[in-house]
Every structure is written in structure tokens, then in C-alpha cells.
Amino acid sequence: MSFTLAIVGRPNVGKSTLFNRLVGKKLALVDNQPGVTRDLREGEARLGDLRFTVIDTAGLEDATDDSLQGRMRRLTERAVDMADVCLFMIDARTGITPTDMMFAEILRKRSAHVILAANKGEGSAADAGVIEAYSLGLGEPIRLSAEHGEGMNDLYSFLMPIDEKFAKAAEDTLPITDIDVNEDGESEEEYSLPTNEKPLQVAVVGRPNAGKSTLINKILGEERLLTGPEAGITRDAISLRIMWNDTPMRIFDTAGMRKKAKVQDKVEKLSVSDGLRAVKFAEVVVVLLDAEIPFEQQDLRIADLAEREGRAVVVAVNKWDIEDSKQEKLRDLKESFERLLPQLRGAPLITVSAKTGRGLDRLHDAIMRAHAVWNRRVPTAALNRWLTGMLEQHPPPAPQGRRIKLRYMTQAKTRPPGFVVMCSHPDKMPDSYSRYLVNGLRQDFDMPGTPIRLMMRGQGDKNPYKGKKKSTPSRLRKHVHGRNSKPG
Hints:
Largest sheet: 6 strands, mixed
Shape: elongated
């Protein structure tokens, strides 16, 4: 998905009808009665070759109190803030209303990209409303009929340059991963410290109310992000450029990720998917735990997600300032970490206090070290000397009496480190032996915590006659029977 489009407008202008047409299913309830849609609905939209996320919203009404209409309006305004593009719909047959004028003004201030659509635009009865739409000051309106599918080509023309812009921005922001390494352990992309042009990309993830925004504010030295005692204040992944201890970084503050069963609020569903997307945009993921309730199931899922995405991981335990028995607690944390996350064995575990700022220098150093390990390269000669020692110490198993031979090993990629082992019967190699090799790589080549990819590959069959029917070659037959002999 390249961008998010929120469809907004007064009640009963046809927002849900257009939403259903874009997603290709009748997901949203549609009726002539206004106010049917009350919460946010998200779907995967297809328009020609464009793929994007579309959000159906409640009708905008002139209410700011705590009534149902007021809460619905705040929810819609939140969707406007979260979306990359807003499609503002009016009813071309009704024409422009004072409410349309008021919300056009709000959208001009809150959204960088606003597209104006005059819906129910089929027939001459809509001509006056389409012309009147220019008075909103939002540019040329698209004449649509969401019910009959008219005007979709015009909508495509408006969205195409926006899609290209966001695709380019995503390409520029995504970290470079899986860099090929040659025989000497060198790669085209030499490891270098982060620069202003290529800042280190860090995502701070964790459950709600773990203190992510407070931590980033403390690093920034200013109250840039909204914080408070309530869980779930941060709704979307916010990217900030910072200079931390002379290191240029782009840091992502993400919404708290809860168990899927608990995620009922529609905005929170959008927030969680945004947080997962932030992991993909990061090079180093800081999993922030709450010292009072560390390593809950969701923390483990988040750390496992970062490992599966191949990102360097640092575990930070927050609210350490209110912990009484620190030594005992730290010992228990390390034991739990080793037991519950063996795939991240050796990853740094740092205790911090986002409130007081204690431990932030250690966190910075851990992030830099995790990034360096993520870029680690090992020469092929050193790898094969190491492999010989590992085989002598613990030979591979012999399934069905046939010993698996490990012949050769090389590093194929970095970011994260990836290794290839040439062997016989790669499909019969048990996972336990692969883990033995991965743990050895971590320990002997100083690669704690980083995801390590290990692939077993067969060398192919070198015998060209294997599988062919055995027969005596003609030259040999002539030599045995004589040149003029006749078979008897």
C-alpha cells in the first residue's frame, strides 16, 4: 500500500457507496437515511493499477460536544490527521451548504492533500452544484457518481501523481537491507556511520503506556509528542529527525500495540498497522518494556516480528526509577529474555527511565552497537576454518545412516548477516543443528542479538551418467569383438 485516502463529507453524500466501489465489496452499510456510518472502516482499495488504503468515515456534523455526533466528528478529524490524502465529497444535487463551507476550511488547515469530489453528478440536475463547488477554494472538483461508477478515470488521474510521490518517498525512506557480499566478505555498500543524508532509522515499539513518547521527548530535550497517564494517546507512527549524541537519526514513535482481541477501537486498528509498518522502515527496533509488567505475550510478539523482518533489536526496560530491588529484578529479566526469546540471544537489554533520563547514554550506545553488528561481515576463509572446528566438535547427524557432509560456507548478505552452507542432503538437516551453527556464529564472531539467516544448499550432482541406462559404448564393443567380427 502506497498511501491512505480518507473519504470525508457531510452525512448522506455517498461516502460509503464510493468506499464499497473502491474496495470491490459491500463492506460498508449503505442507506438513504443519513448518519448510518458511525465509526471508521478501513479497506484495501484498487483503482486501475493503483493500490492504496481507503478509510470510510462518519458524516461531518457541526457538533463539538460529547454527544454522539461530537464524538463521531472527532473520530473523523482523527482520520483526516492520519490520512495522507482526503477526498472531500459534496452532494452535487443539493449544492454547497454552510456546513460544506465550514469543513472545507478545516480541511485546508489539517490536510496537505485535499481532492474535491462532487458526487451524485450524473445528469443535468447536478450541473449547478458542480459549478458551485469551485467556490470552496479546493481546486477543480471531480464529477462523480459513486453509485454508477462514473468519474473513476478522473479520480485515477488525480491520484496517480500522489501515488508516485508517496512511492518515491517510501523508497527513499526504506532502509537498505540484504546487501550482497562477495567471497572476501566485502560488499558494494561499505558500512559507514550514519550521516545527515542517511540517518540511522530507529523505531520505538511496545505496548500502550510503556512510555515511548516520553522517552523520545527526553531524547529530544523538548515536549514534542503528546504524553499522559492514559494508555493509547499516540495514534499513528510519527517520524522525527533528531541529532542524538552527535548521531543523526530518524526516530519513529509508534502507537502502542495490544493483543489483537483487545483492539476494538477502529482508530487503534489503524494505529497498530502503522506501528507494524514503522518496523519495516527501521534499521534498529527498540522494544520498550514496562518494568512493572515486562515480557507479556504482546512484547514477545513485537520482538519476534522485528526479528522476522530482519531488523536489529534492542530491548529497553522503562520506569526503572520506581523499581526497588533493581539487582534481583535485572537478573530475572535477563533469565526471562534468554528463555523466551532464544532467537535474539545476546541482544542488548538496557534499563532506562524516560522520566528522569537515566540510562539514555547506554541506550544510545546499544543502538549503535546493534547497528554495527547488523552490518557485520566475516571473510570466507575465517568462516571455513571456524566450520571445520564446529564439525570436529559436534559432527552433523546421519539420518537413515547417511552422514550429511558440510563442504563449504560463505557469507552471502549483510543487514542482517546471511550465510550459505554447501552440503549434501540439505533437506535432511535438522533445525537443531542449524541452531547449533547460528549460536556458534553469534558467540565466535561477536554477533549478539542480531537476526542471522542460515541457508543450507546442495551442490548438485556432478556425475553426468547418473540415471542413464547402462550400456557398452560402441567403441568398446568394436574393440572386444574385432572390427570385422559378426555377432554370433
